[in-house]
Amino acid sequence: MNSNVNIFIEAESFDHLGGWVIDQQFMDIMGSPFLLAHGLGNPVEDAVTKVSFPEAGKYRLWVHTRDWVAPWKAPGTPGKFQVLIDDKSVDTIFGTEGSEWHWQDGGVVDIPDKEVKISLRDMTGFEGRCDAILFCSDADFTPPDSGEELKTFRIKSLDLPEKPEDVGEFDLVVIGAGIAGICSAISAARLGLNVALVQDRPVVGGNNSSEVRVWLGGERNCEPYSRVGDIVAQLEQAQKAHYGPDNVGEIYEDEKKMGLLEEAGVKIFTDYRVNQAEVNSDHINAVVAQNVLNARRIRCKGKLFADCTGDAAVGFLAGADYEITLKGHMGRCNNWNVKDTGEPVEFPLCPWAYDLSNKPFPGRSKASNGFERQAIKELGGWYWESGFDHDPIKDGEYIRDNNFRAMYGAWDALKNVDKVYPTYKLNWCAYVSGMRESRRLLGDVILTKDHLMNSHVFPDGCLPTGWDIDLHVPHKEYKHGFMGNEFISEAIFTKYPRPYWVPYRTLYSRNIDNLFMAGRNVSVTHEALGAVRVMRTGGLMGEIVGMAAYLCKEHDKNPRGIYEDHLSDLKNIMKEGVGKRR
User: Fold this and answer.
1) Rounded-to-integer distance, Cα 473 and Cα 489, Å
2) Same domain assignment for residues 291 and 183
3) pLDDT (tens digit, 9 = 90+) per residue, 252-276?
4) Could you tell me the pTM of the whole model?
């Protein structure tokens, strides 16, 4: 071979994913998504792609992967998988070493033709993961492992354009399509604004989507602004099934949400993760987003921006002031459920999962005493939650995997120790975490617990709370032996006079002059977040953001200017609502 050749295969470039899923929720840290063998203990179908080489011959194989249970020094390697070249497996087993993402050396392999089939073969069904595959003609070349060096290497190897593609200029660019983002986009669009909505998943709805499956909480359409909540009302699902195998994806009506956005005329960019903000002093000019499937980058220019990401990703990139509670914050959950198949089903031992053979967990005592059907509702609910003392951004993969270890350990204990549920199988588990708390952007008002408890009245109160102060902490009954990695929570409720009217000034940044926010990343303290984080309330925030964005364009003002000069105009629109097309 005349020159050094690197054949770089991104995980998301596989033509056929088989049973593997694309996991992009940790792109902020990883820089790219990865393939996850989310088989719940059953090996998934091969992921397959065709690869062109300049010529046949010898290449060194590298696979970017990790042993996902290594951070706990757990025995066994549940994430094992193979790489096949034209259906012939290479000798190395991958996913068996290293607690961090790294290039695992697969040795020198023979590429028999210029066109070959490359396959990933899962060996366990237990969350194996692969970020990229690299074939090097230079057997002595070692690829960079992480950071900017790896990012530059990816771009060069994939021959990606240096500059992102401009996709237009918008009155409002909304980033994040949970309920808050959907309502922000629809509200502004119905009022006549040109709106873009950027979402890093293939579906919209966030925690209230078929991917995560969390129901809506909170109130809407409260006097004296009884029309605030009209869009949220249109998003309500006809059917509810919060626990167990009846909690199927279809009842979350992803298509209805997308249809309402399209009907409003919103320009939707799904599968795009915003990872750059172009800022001039205290003003955002544009955001750059990367496609999680093909690494294509786009640039959305805007006059106004709404950070509805939950993690305050855009505000963080733009330099907005924020707070984060690193110790003692609310965690994330990956809901799961089991199902009766009507015939015996075995489940393998999981020595790498949490050993719960002699530990209590929700549902166990009921199942062991013959109340299996009642216990099902206690398996995999909202309180299977991790991450209270871990960084919710940097440690996101660790926290999610902690939930996996808890689920597999519990099911192992029920099936193999207690010998219950003989005909049941693990039916579903969200691999996308349901988030509760991370960064909170700071506005001109920071809502506190004292404001709620003392019924402090703000002149710009614009949306009602409909939830007590609800803070999750590790459950005292189940945390022993798992300190620092607790995975069962309890809710601590504090009542206050409600509804409380949250001020508009919590919905825009105090130091980035054209940035709104809606959802769980608004300007509140950790305690006050417990009252406003539920999704109906986030949707109301979005409706207000859309109304205020309309007034910003109408009067050539920034978000702060609406409070200072046009608060009465905002209240007038709040009375009328945006529940139908104008």
Assistant:
1) 5
2) yes
3) 999 999 999 999 999 999 999 999 9
4) 0.96
